[in-house]
Structures are given as C-alpha cells and as structure tokens.
Automatic annotation (TrEMBL):
PANTHER family: CHOLINE/ETHANOALAMINE KINASE, ETHANOLAMINE KINASE 1. Belongs to the choline/ethanolamine kinase family. It holds the Pfam family Choline_kinase. This is ethanolamine kinase. The gene is LOC103269027.
Length: 144
C-alpha cells in the first residue's frame, strides 16, 4: 500500500530486490500497488505529476511485470496486448483510488500529526490530481 522507489532496494551484485517500510502494509489489489507506485514517481515534498509515467513507459513496465509473473507461475512468458491493456486500465483506475486514499490520509494527518509537513497542501494536491485524471481514466475501455 506504499510502494514507492525509496521503499525498493535493488542489489545488483546479488540480482535481487528487497522491499522495506511495511507501515501501511496489508492485502491489496496488485493494480492498486502498481498505480500507487506510478503516482509516487511525482514525489512527495515537491510533487510534479509530469513525472507520472506515460502510456508507453507504463506499457513496458506492465509487460515486464506480467512476463515475470507468468514465468514465476510456470505459465511461460508470452503476454498479449490485451493482457497489458487490461492491467493498464486497472492500474490507472486504482491510481485514482490511491490519490483519494492519500488525500484523506493527509487530511487526517493535518489535524493530528506533529510532523513538520504541509499535510493540508498535500491533500489538496492529491485531490486535484484525482479530479484531473478521473475523466480520462473512467473513459478507458478494454478493446473488444
């Protein structure tokens, strides 16, 4: 539920990946975690949503993810365009949910947190991005 680059450690020498910071961990849809991960490309302190990955980068990322998943499960590595498109739509729908979740979280933090951070400003940024993305994302449809 908080998969951002700073919580992923890649050990090039050993060729493995470790995840850290399980403060908000819990069962969730994989598309939520990926959508949240893409949202986090924009940063937290100096948020810049122009850094949100474009459709091409998302497609490459999602294809690689699906290939690795299928290989791990023993299903081979062939991934169809439709599988990538379905996951792309799900990820971007859950990216909306991520904006809403972190916007609400920031409102609560603005009231109760003692940390020096503009939580109210962050909530506004997340809600603004939610409403900006919503028409485009809700218009996405899986091709027949």
């Amino acid at each position: 539920n908080d998969l951002l680059c700073k919580n992923i450690i890649y050990n090039e020498k050993q060729g493995d990946v470790q995840f850290i910071d399980y403060e908000y961990s819990g069962y969730n849809y994989l598309a939520y975690d990926i959508g949240n991960h893409f949202n986090e490309f924009a940063g937290v302190s100096d948020v810049d949503y122009s850094l949100y990955p474009d459709r091409e980068l998302q497609g490459q990322w999602l294809r690689s993810y699906l290939e690795a998943y299928k290989e791990f499960k023993g299903f081979g590595t062939e991934v169809t365009e439709k599988e990538v498109e379905i996951l792309f739509i799900q990820v971007n729908q859950f990216a909306l949910a991520s904006h809403f979740f972190w916007g609400l979280w920031a409102l609560i933090q603005a009231k109760y947190s003692t940390i020096e951070f503009d939580f109210l400003g962050y909530a506004i940024v997340r809600f603004n991005q939610y409403f900006k993305m919503k028409p485009e994302v809700t218009a996405l449809k899986v091709p027949e």
